[in-house]
Amino acid sequence: MLEYDLFWGVKKIINIKMINDFLIISCTGNNDKLGLKINNNFYIHDFQNKAKNNEILVSTILNLFNKHKAKIDKDFTVLINNGPGSFSTIRVALAAAKGIKISNNVQLYGFNNADLPQFSLANIEVLINKNILEKNLIKPLYSS
Predict the structure, then answer these.
(1) Is residue 134 part of a domain?
(2) Under a CB-based contact definition with an 8 Å cutoff, are residues 136 and 8 in contact?
(3) Which of 5, 18, 23, 114 is the 20 to 30 A CA-CA neighbour of 40?
């Protein structure tokens, strides 16, 4: 199934049935959180100290994966918040997500901050089922 975008041309619609296990990175400089759904369990990590979130993001993701014995393979998905938000925080989060994608051959999708009003598994599943996730991640929204 294809969808047409007036500016970019044809883009593929995401098969939502394929998203079971995922990492969600919602780091925009305000209420930064990570979520990991693995084997039907959902874990949330809240960042407490805003000053060092950019520095500890990757190690926090790795610790989350190791702690919950996550298997990161082609069936795994990473969801990333594209903003709006802090330029540096979004860029670091996007770089981490793309690193996971490249090193583990996972699926990577983005969403806008307004599409996830509250960080909970129920709302994340609604976000996935709305079919508004974007595969084109070159247009993050930065706040000034």
Answers:
(1) no
(2) yes
(3) 114
Query: Any idea of the CA torsion for 106, 108, 113, 116, to the nearest 10 degrees?
Result: -50
Phi-psi region of 9 (alpha: psi -120 to 50; beta: other; left: phi over 0): left
Number of domains in the chain: 1
* Interior/surface letters 13-26, b for 16+ CB within 10 angstroms, e for the rest: ebeeeebebbbbbb
Classified as helix, coil or strand, 64 is helix
Structure tokens belonging to residue 30: 């305000």
C-alpha to C-alpha distances, 25 to 3, 31, 87, nearest whole angstrom:
26, 11, 15
